Amino acid sequence: MSQLDPAILSALPGPSTDYTLPSSLHSIASFGTTTHINKCGVPTYFLKYARSKKLIEGEYRALHLISKAVPGFCPDPVASGQFNDGSRYFVVASFLKDLRSGSGRVWERKLAEKLAKLHTEATSDVYGLPDSLPTCCGATAMPNPPTTTWSEFYGVHRLQFILDENTRANGRDIDLDRLGNKVVEKVVPRLLDGIKSSPSLVHGDLWAGNAGAINDSETGETVPVIYDACAFYADSEFELGIMRMFGGFSSGGFYKRYHELVPEKEPREEYEDRIRLYRLFHELNHAALFGGGWYLDQAKSSMRALIKKYE
């Protein structure tokens, strides 16, 4: 795309002649393209466009939910819609100036404080989303039907769903079916039925590549930001599954401060196994998206370990 679609221009304030695209795109992926929009030559807005309506609508909703709960923690949503020719959908958000990777204990502690605020203050009566709008983890459109119990939501609408996605994407795997059935039917209720859970807003895909740092516009202070969210209401410990999967957050920085504000749920001796259970969703999602391989091996290893302990 060399010029902004008229539908995007009509969603932005002021004369359309103020807005231009940069000479090159930021990233091009099978499920979406990202770039920024210049206003009078200055980067002002972030733009993502894709063929998937669910991906764009889900990201726009996620930005709304997170920015309302913790202002400044993610890009502010500006507009969303469909190209004039109907070929693609777009989301426009505020541009994160001087965005960079987050690092160091101070940044990690600030991230922990913002995430704890999101998890403890942005709550709901149901898991998922009240209106069932899907949100996308990568290219995977996750169902979010309003559900009253966390065990049911995670077992049915995350694990069984992503097991079915693996079958659809990679074909039937009898071993995966067997392991998956045992985890959904035995391990999930064993580990999740007894915890004291309530629906908290989560980012949903918070690996280190979806968290960064910018300078506060008023103080110049380094502050954490998150982006590329697939937000929904979950048990807050779910957030930690993918954070553990890919690493990048230290026990003495992020986790120490986060759990000072959001303690591990009881029984604490099963905390690590719950995190492994939540990590399993992301292992299976990556297996579905990228053709099985190493991610599928990791998922099966996680399932065998959990089954051995809790079946």
Automatic annotation (TrEMBL):
It comes from Lipomyces starkeyi NRRL Y-11557. GO terms for molecular function: kinase activity; protein-ribulosamine 3-kinase activity. Pfam families: Fructosamin_kin. It comes from the Eukaryota. It catalyses: N(6)-D-ribulosyl-L-lysyl-[protein] + ATP = N(6)-(3-O-phospho-D-ribulosyl)-L-lysyl-[protein] + ADP + H(+). Keywords: Kinase, Transferase. Its EC number is 2.7.1.172. This is protein-ribulosamine 3-kinase. InterPro entries: Fructo-/Ketosamine-3-kinase (IPR016477), Kinase-like_dom_sf (IPR011009). Belongs to the fructosamine kinase family. The keyword Nucleus does not apply. It is an enzyme of class 2 (transferase). The keyword Kinase applies.
